[in-house]
Every structure is written in structure tokens, then in C-alpha cells.
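re the bet — no i am not wrong, look at it urself. input seq straight from the record:
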Amino acid sequence: MASSFDSQPVDSNKLLTPTGSALGAVVQGVDASAPVAAETILALKQGLLDHHILIFQGQDLAEDQFKAFATYFGNVFNPPPDVPVLASKEGGATPEIVLVANIEGGYTGNGELTPHSDHHWAPLPSAGSFLYALEVPAKGGDTTFYNMHLAYTTLDAATRQRIDGLQLITYNPFLQSKDGQRPTYRSTPKPLISPVFPHPLVRTHPNSGKKILYLDASTEVEVVGLPASEGEALIAELRAHIDSERFRYTHRWKVGDIVYWDNQAVLHARTAFDPSSRRVLKRISLAGSRPF
């Protein structure tokens, strides 16, 4: 028999409203600027496992409040000094809160960003990220999320059997030339200029146990142990499969939105927007574990 001091579970039907798309739920009644009850945090953690992204609307936070809220769900991601990521400084230092903006001091500009998972090339990729909108353009700059568990489970049985157990190297895009076209598959060996960290092409989610197709849409990759032509053809086939509306939810940002996504289970992409419009968001990424 539970004591009067035990937390009572939160009714997830009142807390979360699914988007009606392949993933995502809108969170009701949570003020991220204030302390959040334990039972609500637990319900949100379960909600992330169920829906892959959580959407908090109408938020108004200072940076310290933003960090306090995000760290209910884990420690801040801190990459190794020799593995650069977005906003890495000389020596490898990375800010805890990254300015994702097309203003001075910001990162990612105003162009299109293809579907990807953050820090895929790191030894311990981030577990998730929070993105908080302060200014948004009237048109464009939308973020589309892809349900990569659904992408895996909808593959035919023969393909699932073929790819289970394969290892994939994702090459660091921050160590590639910014000029010219970037390759999407490493079909010709090149001297390594940084460490590489093979991860499963099909990873198991460390909390839910779900199988995830762990592959970006256009980042340069290489399947370990396969001839170049076979590996390139396989990746092209899988990427064509990913490119489907049935796996997507597109978020059209409003000021005060916070989106928390499971970086272990989804890809995210961004549409381009007018460079004369301001788009100012702040991102906190959470530490992850070695994929398995």
C-alpha cells in the first residue's frame, strides 16, 4: 500500500497531446522557468520515449532557467577536444548553450539543413537537444523531424536482416571543406585527419529498447567491411526509404516554443529562410552514451 508521501502518477492524456503525425506531442501545463514536480518529469521522460519529440509552447526563460530545465533530463553534452561540433572553439571548448541564429555570434545561417542527427560522428553522440525560439521569421526556417524507429520497422524483412549488425562510420562534417560539393559516401579511401567512431547502422535505444535506423540523409558515411560499390548502393537505398512524408512531423516555430527531441531516435532538418529575417534560437544538447 502506497504511503501518503508517494508521488502520484501524472495522467499522460492530460499532459501530452500527440501531433497526429509520425512523431511528436505537445506538452500542456508545464512552465519550464519554474521547478517541475518529480512525477511530471518522469511522465515527460516516458513521453519522449513514446513520441520522440516534446513541444512546449509559450515559454519565457532566462538562460539559467533554460539550463536548469534541460538538466532535469541529463547532463550537458561535452565533446572530446579533438572532435569538433557546432560552435566548437579553439582547443575544443563548446558553449553549454549554443546560439542557433543568423545574427552575429550565431551558427547555421539561413540556408537549408538536410536531415541529420547531431554529433553522430562523436564517440558518445548526444542523447537529445532542447531548442528554444526567441525570434522566428514570418516564413521558412521550419524544422522537420523524422521517426527513425518507424523508418526501421517499415523496411522489408530481408533488408532488416541484411543491415542488422553492420557498422557505419559517419565522417565529421566540421572537418571537411566548406567549398564545393560534399560527398555523401566515402567510396575512395582518404587519409584520416581525425579519429573515427563506427556505430551500429541499426542501434538499440538505451532506454526504450526500440530499434533505430541510425543514418543521416546526406552526411558522408562508409559501411565498415563492405566493398565501396555495395556499401554506397545500400546507403542510397536506405536514404531513399527515409525520404518519405510518413516518417515526418514539421514544426513551424512560434516565439516561446521549446522543442526537446530524442537525438538517438530522430533526424531533424531545416528549410531555408530569407536572410533579411532574423531567426534566433538557443540550443542545449544532452550527453549520450556509446551506441549499441
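see?? The chain is about 20% helix and 25% strand. told u. also The domain at 12-108+124-136+252-266+274-286 is CATH 3.60.130.10 (Double-stranded beta-helix). so pay up
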